[in-house]
Write a structure and sequence with these properties.
It is built from 17 helices and eleven strands. By secondary structure, the protein is an alpha+beta fold.
Length: 446
């Protein structure tokens, strides 16, 4: 057997081994309703360490017509003390055992992350429950969080990537869509005007077991985990289920928008559309494969041509986004030197047109499917990765068996399906183009 055939055989064996390793995820996962919480436990081979990932519907989208800053401010206050322990006492308890707990607020969800030794699981579960159920929510702390939030947003407003992405959400998503960001000046005003009673009311309405999912992986004693969760969250009520959101209707936003930022050495460009697709939609994976062929990393057509051949960009790629809970967007994102902006956009559009009109090749499809499956398998190689994938699978509305079916689902895609899905869902002639940075001749459009 020559070396090439030997290498191919080894690669096939490794892929088979990975597939076997992850082929029975659904069978190994233990899912139960504990104190109203959807709990998934999945033991992994890691010794003595437990990873926890959780989420509940209390993200920015739930502000509705009320103060847009309140969901994030509420989440920011969770780890700043409870009615029983101040922030320093909680930090000391965690530091003593080397455990971590953190919270974050996204468009739709409040996220919970924790990691601890197996023996310290009862402590960590109790602290998560305490912080979620009975945060102190004081006026003094709120003022501190408002300053921190406003300062963070002000710093983001100096970043061309943030400004382009932020404006793009308002171009492609209508008012009321969860993926649409408030204008920066609106958010800064909301932060300034936020009141403690608004935070308390938001916490009371949206924090509870309804819609709360918690995933634990690692060296698990599952009966112990379930008992501790049952005790820590007993009697907790409230919360909301994630609502169904209609697909994004068209907007009347200008097709080309400039966000002028003086003194910048680069211009960020985002071009694209609302995709109309959720991750769980039948055509999603086909569009995802095609999108990766166009612009995923250095092997994508965009980087290979616009950067490597023509030297017109610092970086460029295409991706799908915002589609876990609702329909999302399809976009190309690139950064250009201001002097090369027009040439760079023209080059990107040339690659887009070729990709859209001529389609992708069978060889490209097979290579990209292999790459995506490999990345997926690598993501299941750690307890953190398994926890994240299990939680994402539930968020996307799948049963846990989706993780076992992913590779076969992707492998079943044909080149014809991939090219047809692109034509069905994308319309480059209607793309929005947002430019943010020092754009020559755009000073008047501040």
């Amino acid at each position: 057997m020559n070396f090439s055939r030997l290498l191919l055989s080894v690669s096939i064996l490794l892929l088979c081994s990975l597939s076997t390793t992850h082929a029975q995820i659904a069978e190994k996962a233990v899912r139960a309703k504990i104190a109203g919480i959807d709990v998934v436990a999945y033991p992994t081979g890691v010794k003595n360490v437990v990873t926890i990932r959780g989420s509940l519907p209390a993200g920015d989208a739930f502000a509705g017509n009320d103060n847009a800053a309140v969901p994030t401010l509420t989440g920011m206050m969770l780890d700043k003390g409870t009615v029983k322990n101040d922030r320093f006492a909680i930090a000391a308890k965690l530091e003593q055992v080397g455990a971590t707990i953190s919270f974050g607020v996204g468009n739709q969800m409040l996220d919970v992350r924790a990691k601890c030794l197996k023996k310290d699981l009862p402590l960590v579960v109790a602290l998560i429950a305490e912080q979620l159920r009975t945060p102190a929510l004081t006026a003094e702390q709120l003022e501190k969080e408002k300053k921190q939030f406003a300062g963070s947003l002000q710093r983001q407003l100096e970043d061309t990537n943030f400004r382009a992405e932020d404006a793009f959400t308002r171009a492609v998503y209508p008012v009321g869509h969860p993926n649409r960001n408030p204008a920066p000046e609106e958010m800064l005003a909301a932060i300034q005007s936020a009141k403690l009673d608004e935070v308390i009311a938001f916490h009371k309405k949206y924090y509870g077991p309804a819609g709360f999912t918690l995933v634990a992986t690692g060296d698990l004693d599952i009966p112990l985990l379930q008992r501790e969760l049952g005790a820590a969250f007993a009697g907790w009520t409230g919360g909301v289920s994630l609502p169904q959101t209609p697909k994004a209707a068209g907007t009347d936003s200008p097709k080309t928008q400039d966000v002028f930022m003086p003194g910048k050495t680069s211009v960020t460009v985002v071009m694209g559309q609302a995709s109309g697709l959720k991750y769980s939609d039948p055509d999603y994976q086909a569009v995802r494969v095609a999108t990766a062929i166009l612009g995923s990393g250095f092997t994508g057509r965009l980087m290979a041509n616009v950067r490597d051949k023509e030297g017109l960009t610092y970086g460029i790629g295409s991706n799908l986004s915002g589609d876990t809970f609702t329909d999302g967007a399809w976009q190309i994102t690139a950064t250009f030197n201001p002097t090369l902006l027009d040439k760079g956009i023209a080059s990107a559009k040339k690659q887009l047109t070729s990709w859209y009109e001529a389609g992708v090749t069978a060889d490209e499809v097979e290579r990209r499917k292999t790459n995506l499956i490999g990345t997926f398998e690598v993501g299941l190689a750690t307890s953190d990765g398994v926890a994240g994938n299990l939680l994402s699978t539930i968020h996307r509305g799948y049963d846990l068996g989706w993780l076992d079916r992913f590779a076969s689902t992707l492998n079943a895609l044909t080149t014809e399906q991939v090219n047809a899905a692109v034509k069905k869902h994308l319309h480059p002639e209607d793309f929005f183009v947002v430019r943010a940075g020092t754009i020559f001749g755009a000073e008047a459009k501040k």
